[in-house]
């Protein structure tokens, strides 16, 4: 376990149960960022001449990590930029299916445009609710979080594979920001059309970088309109009007995208199998203990599939007390959200439990 925690100095100062808000910056990523900016300081445009090579390497690293061909990987600064660019490339009006109370960066951009919106309710039967809504409304696209940001409710990849087969004409657009980095994920085997993700949470890539993974069949259904000098620069953007280039106009930030590449390589070195096993251990233990104390919503306890994000019952006083004990969490919805990544331990969860019991 000490090996898994090595390289995250924050863990020496806090019981950090807040990756769902902001992932930790690994020392290796910090060192890369220092070296990059030092190179820029002393070489300026000489460094930037290598931008195409750097971005090609990042794209290939992302593609390899998530099993998606690099020519179907777009590099974007964050989820919202990529998602809004994609929405502008969809013909209007169209019918959209959303999950009620999903992350605002998903629902708000759809609702603010000329789409007719329908919703699936989040409860113990979320999967059934989605299936019923898809059958009833026959939406042109379904935009959703794989893991819900408030309470950690998770849609299994197996369910998504199954439901996509039933509705092949609906464009499935998934937000992976609260999911990618917690378990092995092979995009091409899922059947999903689009997965968009920021990298500052579970991938520990820092801010200012993200990516989009595209199914090879989706490009004709989306017509993005953004264009700029950067749209034609690089190994995978050789021709005018190419698809991923329309998500990458202008000069790209080699500091931030390079940080993503370093972060993914660190996860690879650690081993996604080990990371998945540790996250599974933590979420199983946490769910059992939180359930015993009556800290979770009933429908969350009922559900078989869940993430390592939990919204526990607690008010502002409890939140401030946790912070006084150097336990870092977030206030979300009506409770306190805690989240565990692979560098966390059962002992840290037990410390949280002891503090919670002392306040009852």
Automatic annotation (TrEMBL):
GO MF annotation, one: transaminase activity
Coiled coil segments of this chain: none
SUPFAM superfamilies documented for this protein: PLP-dependent transferases
Origin superkingdom: Bacteria
Gene3D superfamilies: Aspartate Aminotransferase, domain 1 (3.90.1150.10), Type I PLP-dependent aspartate aminotransferase-like (Major domain) (3.40.640.10)
Aminotransferase class V domain location: 16-352
Keywords attached to this entry: Aminotransferase, Pyridoxal phosphate, Transferase
First and last residue of the signal peptide: none
Entry keyword annotation includes S-adenosyl-L-methionine: no
One Pfam family recorded for the sequence: Aminotran_5
Protein name: Aminotransferase class V-fold PLP-dependent enzyme
Organism annotation: Autumnicola patrickiae
């Amino acid at each position: 376990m000490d090996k898994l925690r090595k390289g995250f100095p924050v863990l020496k100062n806090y019981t950090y149960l807040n990756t769902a808000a902001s992932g930790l910056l690994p020392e290796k990523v910090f060192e890369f960022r220092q070296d990059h900016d030092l190179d820029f300081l002393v070489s300026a445009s000489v460094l930037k001449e290598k931008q195409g090579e750097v971005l090609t390497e990042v794209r290939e690293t992302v593609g390899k990590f998530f099993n998606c061909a690099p020519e179907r990987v777009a590099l974007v600064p964050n989820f919202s930029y990529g998602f809004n660019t994609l929405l502008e490339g969809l013909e209007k009006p169209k019918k959209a299916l959303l999950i009620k109370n999903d992350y605002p960066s998903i629902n708000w951009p759809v609702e603010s445009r000329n789409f007719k919106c329908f919703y699936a309710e989040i409860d113990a039967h979320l999967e059934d609710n989605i299936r019923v809504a898809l059958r009833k409304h026959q939406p042109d696209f379904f935009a959703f979080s794989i893991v819900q940001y408030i309470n950690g409710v998770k849609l299994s990849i197996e369910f998504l594979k199954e439901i996509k087969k039933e509705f092949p004409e609906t464009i499935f657009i998934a937000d992976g920001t609260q999911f990618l980095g917690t378990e092995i994920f092979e995009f091409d085997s899922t059947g999903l059309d689009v997965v968009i993700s920021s990298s500052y949470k579970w991938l520990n890539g820092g801010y200012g970088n993200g990516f989009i993974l595209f199914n090879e069949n989706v490009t004709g259904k989306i017509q993005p309109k953004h264009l700029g000098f950067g749209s034609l620069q690089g190994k995978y953007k050789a021709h005018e009007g190419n698809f991923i280039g329309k998500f990458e106009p202008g000069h790209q930030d080699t500091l931030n995208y390079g940080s993503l590449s370093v972060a993914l390589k660190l996860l690879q070195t650690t081993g996604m199998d080990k990371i998945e096993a540790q996250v599974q251990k933590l979420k199983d233990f946490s769910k059992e203990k939180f359930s015993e104390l009556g800290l979770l919503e009933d429908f969350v306890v009922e559900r078989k599939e869940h993430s390592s994000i939990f919204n526990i019952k607690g008010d502002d006083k409890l939140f401030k007390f946790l912070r006084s004990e150097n336990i870092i969490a977030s206030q979300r919805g009506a409770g306190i959200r805690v989240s565990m990544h692979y560098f966390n331990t059962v002992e840290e969860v037990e410390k949280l439990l002891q503090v919670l019991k002392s306040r009852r």
